[in-house]
Amino acid sequence: MIAAEINVMMPMNPPKPVRGRFAPSPTGALHLGSLLTALGSYLHAKAQGGEWWVRIEDVDRDRELPGAAESQLDSLRRFGLEWDGEVVRQSARGALYQAALDSLLTRGLAFECHCSRNDLAANHGLHRHCLARSRRPQPAFRFRVHPGCKMDFHDEVLGSQSQQVDREVGDFVLKRADGHWAYQLAVVVDDGAQGITEVVRGADLADSTARQILLQKALALPTPRYLHLPLLLDENGRKLSKSLAALPLDTEHALPALRLVWQALGQPAKAVAAAANPQQFLSLALANFEPGRIPARPSALHNMVFTNPA
Ligand code: GLU
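^ thats the input. predicted complex w/ glutamic acid below
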């Protein structure tokens, strides 16, 4: 009774709005694998009444393909995947990443590192102590991972996950010696700054999650919910990006591709059979999406029908 009265009197924090995101790197056109991530993250956020944001992860200017970001955004529109808010580009956010790095350096949670790949080769590239034989003109910066550091987290599809970060990853890079910001730092700063509550992305990034949670804790940022989507495999069991099916999507024929990735997300084909265009597809998909059906194992494309059943 007393507890109930106190609850009524206490000002409550308003619940945070659900906000998901799709964060492509502009290294090429959208392909089936990226469409699966785009659709999965869109449905997951929208089915909860949330927002879906798009962020262009262009920190690595060397890997960027000119025009790819615009082509990816254009494809999303053609697939009916309209985003909320402004599209954010990581290339314009260096000051935020620098402030985060400075804060880690000041507190001794990050350090300057002159080690080269060669210096670390004997340790399989894993950094535990600086072994540099000479100073570099421009050092890298790493996050200090303490001995015995183990990170457990829950993934909505993969279940309980655990990584022994000191032994499996080591002190990881926050800013590279070539001056580029590392993905791990940029993604954590941006997810925090943008108020992202749901991180839904491909299973190839599940391995990065422990590092990202460590950084969130070090920067006093909230940890979002994580859901890693199945990778697409071709008929030979290879990751899609290495095969023919990684070719750019045909945006003139959006429906067959949408149906295919819907099935790869473990959702029943018949639920969206009546759709005649991407907009109808998305409203049927939203009404019928069940995240609990998403498979934890990779989805083999040849088991699905790549035709329009309507
Ligand atoms: N930019 C990454 C990629 O295209 C995705 C990062 C993320 O979703 O955390 O693979």
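Confidence is low (pLDDT under 50) at residues 1-6, 306-310.
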